[in-house]
Design a protein that fits this description.
By secondary structure, the protein is mainly beta. It has three helices and 55 strands. Strands 1-4-7-10-13-16-19-22-25-28-31-34-37-40-43-46 form a 16-stranded parallel beta sheet, covered by helices on one side. Strands 2-5-8-11-14-17-20-23-26-29-32-35-38-41-44 form a 15-stranded parallel beta sheet, with no helix packed on it. A 15-stranded parallel beta sheet has the order 3-6-9-12-15-18-21-24-27-30-33-36-39-42-45, with no helix packed on it.
Length: 554
């Protein structure tokens, strides 16, 4: 269904929630009585002692009684400010200020091979890297301010998994948050701004979740590279040069219910098999740019509006744009430079200056079942593309009765709708509302190798009232038995009148090689053999017993 009232309500609710929990760390009050301390180095659980800045060295190091490092101000110009390695005990670092580690490439806080740590409400400023975690899992970073780092604000790497980053402010760094070789981490409610690269997910960083983050005023807002199966949900990407970039070998990522606005390029895809859905993309120079993609990206159920270029594809094939609302853009859809076999269907394309522009290198792109309303310039297709499919074209608001007749009342305008630029045309422009008048006829066979099903007319997607002749064709060694699902009967050929989505199953049975079904029990043993076994039992066991009983004298 097109991104409509329900979609906008869901988006509105999502972003009310988003902005209600965005980090407020800037306003947190670090205690005024911070005490200067030398850089802290803790190696192993035995290092949690008072001399290393631990304020409760008698703690047990459990989750309920962690060691605590707090209320220090540390100059990191000579060493990492706080460096903890090779520990299993639970600990907390909080309310510390660590600064000036930039000149000697030192980190404010460095955690190496640790678990069960909490880093909370610290201020890391002017370090080479603000917070670093390597080979560390099951830790929490919450409510920290990380500013003016020369390299990375937060660096998570080298098999660091199952960590949570929440409500942190990361700004004015070369790279805000950098993740590499990590999995199953959660980043939520963070504010990442004014960095060269906001969040960079790199090199086999998979199955991470990013939600309710605000990423703004970065050159690159969010980047994927060689990273897959990640989820971005309810984030906002604003005022970046690139809102989101999905780069080479990044697959099966899902971008759901995000806000992408006021960027130069909202979403740039140079990868395959990713999904964007339920997203609002607005006020960008380029809304969605798909470049050198091998295909199978799906962009669906999203609203793309008030951009200069809404969708532009070049050197990209086999992508799907479906159920989107594309409104009030200068250019709605541009397909160029050897882009092939892309599918545009069920989109609302309304009030754009230029609806479509396909250059002469494009071919086999399929445009059908779209609602095209009030485009001010004629669509142009100089390539070899298709504007209808299985007898269904597009609804054109400027190509309707009575000016363009539908004399037989079949819901198809009798006169093809011409497309400028070559010999292309929409041969079957629609009159009816395709949202409610077309349905899917799907089928299956049982067993899977028993045979096949043939539709006439072919396709599987039909207008309401269409009569489809359905024939079951048995495979070798099988015979048709019956229909099930939304139909019934034992005739190989039936007629289905389409009025709703319909599912049918053809059942086949094996034959004995002579065209007759084999008589089998559920266990697969022929009945004749079962009869022989029963007869043998009667002759050998039961019959002698009966004779013996008959000869017993009373």
């Amino acid at each position: 269904m097109i991104f409509g009232k329900r979609g906008f309500l869901l988006t509105l609710v999502a972003f009310i929630f988003l902005f209600s929990i965005l980090p407020t760390v800037r306003g947190q009050n670090f205690k005024p009585d911070l005490v200067p301390h030398d850089p802290i180095y803790i190696a192993g659980d035995n290092g949690f002692i008072s001399g290393n800045g631990v304020v409760n060295p008698d703690a047990t190091g459990t989750a309920k009684d962690p060691y605590v490092v707090e209320n220090w101000i540390i100059d990191a110009s000579e060493n990492h400010g706080i460096y903890i390695e090779s520990t299993t005990a639970n600990f907390v670092i909080r309310n510390c200020v660590v600064e000036k580690g930039g000149s000697d490439r030192n980190a404010g806080i460095f955690l190496y091979r640790v678990q069960g740590g909490r880093v909370e409400n610290n201020w890391l400023e002017k370090n080479n890297m603000g917070i670093v975690m390597w080979e560390s899992s099951n830790n929490v970073l919450k409510g920290n301010i990380v500013e003016n780092s020369l390299l990375h604000g937060i660096n998570l790497g080298s098999s660091s998994d199952n960590n949570v980053f929440e409500s942190n402010l990361v700004e004015n760094s070369s790279m805000g948050i950098h993740l590499h070789f990590v999995s199953n981490n959660i980043l939520k409610g963070n504010l990442v701004k004014n960095n060269h690269s906001g969040i960079f997910l790199y090199s086999l960083s998979d199955n991470n979740i990013f939600k309710n983050n605000l990423v703004e005023n970065n050159f690159y807002g969010f980047e994927f590279s060689e990273s897959s199966n990640n989820v971005l949900k309810n984030n906002s990407f604003e005022n970046n040069n690139y809102g989101i970039r999905i780069l080479v070998s990044s697959t099966n990522n899902v971008l759901d219910s995000n806000l992408i606005k006021n960027n130069t390029t909202g979403l740039a895809i140079s990868a395959s098999n990713n999904v964007l859905k339920n997203t609002l993309i607005k006020n960008n120079t380029y809304g969605v740019s798909i470049f050198r993609s091998l295909g199978n990206n799906v962009i669906e159920s999203s609203s793309v509006e008030n951009n200069i270029h809404s969708f532009i594809l070049y050197y990209s094939s086999n992508n799907v744009l479906e159920n989107n609302s594309i409104k009030n853009n200068s250019y709605a859809i541009e397909i160029n430079t050897n882009s092939e076999n892309n599918v545009l269907r069920k989109n609302l394309i309304e009030n754009n200056t230029y609806g479509f522009n396909f250059d002469n290198t494009t071919k086999n792109n399929l445009v059908f079942r779209n609602r095209i309303i009030n485009i001010r310039e004629e669509p142009c297709d100089e390539g070899s593309n298709f504007w209808d499919n299985n007898g269904m074209g597009n609804y054109w608001s400027d190509w309707q009765p009575p000016e363009h007749a539908d004399k037989d009342g079949d819901g198809i305008v009798d006169e093809p709708r011409p497309i400028e630029g070559g010999n292309n045309q929409d041969r079957h422009p629609l009159v009816m509302d395709w949202e409610t008048s077309t349905f899917i006829l799907s089928s299956s066979v049982n067993p899977s190798d028993g045979g096949s099903i043939v539709f006439n007319p072919p396709g599987g997607e039909y207008s309401s009232g269409t009569e489809v002749t359905v024939t079951a064709e048995p495979g070798e060694g099988f015979k048709f038995d019956r229909w099930s699902g939304d139909v019934s009967g034992t005739s190989e050929t039936i007629t289905v009148t389409i009025s709703a989505d319909t599912n049918i199953t053809a059942h086949f049975v094996e034959t004995n090689g002579q065209g007759n079904p084999e008589e089998k029990e559920s266990g697969g043993i022929p009945l004749i053999w079962i009869g022989i076994v029963i007869a043998i039992i009667i002759v050998i066991i039961i019959f002698p017993i009966m004779i013996k009983r008959k000869n017993i004298k009373p």
